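Quick one: structure for this chain?
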Amino acid sequence: MFVDKAKVYVKGGDGGDGLVAFRREKYVPEGGPAGGDGGKGGDIIFRVDEGLRTLMDFRYQRHFKGNRGIKGRNKNQHGANAEHVIVRIPPGTTLIDDDTGEVIADLTRHGQQIVIAKGGRGGRGNTRFATISNTAPEIAENGEEGQERYVVLEMKVMADVGLVGFPSVGKSTLLSVVSGATPKIGAYHFTTITPNLGVVDVGDGRSFVMADLPGLIEGAHEGIGLGHEFLRHVERTRVIIHVVDMSGSEGRDPFEDWIKINEELELYNPALMKRPQIVAANKMDMPESEENLASFRERVQQLRPEMVIMPISSVTRNGVQELLYRATDILDQISEEPVIEEVSEIAERKVYKLDKKDEDSFKIVRENEAFVVHSAKIEHIMKRMQLNSHEAILKLARILRSMGVDHELRELGAVDGTIVRIADFEFEFVEGSSYY
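Got it. Here's what it folds into:
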């Protein structure tokens, strides 16, 4: 089974917690703090492996979680950083953030990799909080949570030459004739519903990879029919061979077919019109093909005089070798990779800095007899703090007071004993003191 799209959940490992510890040697009185820092959580890294050809593995494993950093130890020993999780993906995979639609990365070469979810920083041990006025702090931090996100993976077939055209024009037959590939061939539309790849040996020491791509219909750029499931693969091809049924066996006009397919390509991605294109005028062994070819050539050259039109018959193999030589000559003259203007290898990273006012903003609402404080900054601080000591509670109280939370609570009517809730924690408000 060919799978070219998948959605996965990734989460970097949480950082290890810092430790509250003190030196306890026999002859070292008041030895001071000795709690080490926690280790960093493991990253989730996506790495290209040229041995993969589909996203099949992601049908069975859709969640990837990084390892947690090791907790800090006494004697100022830091916890070890967690090992990173390496996720293998096939060449030609585009990574898209599911929430924002932003292209995170477009990976095409073996060994390319990107950190898709960073692990959290390790928490600081109490050694880090020692000051002249507090030489024995009983404060340490929890490890930071790792980044998490949903990522959509889209794989685009990596081929030198792509066969495009309406259904049943002979693309699969052509691929089977020129390579060892054995695509399904039938006398009905959409016989091919997934891309087929074949290695073509031209015969003069040169070779290339050819892809038989599912047939197009009108409206494909809007997702009609196989739509985007087909068009995304065309972006990777360096040369397009546009197969046209010159016999008009289904009552269609070859010239109109050529126009419609090119319109769909241009509407999907205008850059595709700059890609070298050869028209393979197929089924020349059929009646009326010669007459249709003369009319087709005249009308095409009026619009695009440079267009190469090569008559062939996949069944009798007439003209097929000449088509392969022409495609190989073009491949030798162009760059190794097609240029896709809309997709960059790594998405631009933007950093937005909040001013002090926005950063310290908070909102207090009343729920029955309690006051609930909503603040991203305060909740982040509380997640990092180990609120199991009186000293840590006092530090949190100072932070809340400096941000103006105390003053706002008094304005809203808080008195001694009023319950104050922040995230999953509850405190009693004490006028002129702190939260307990």
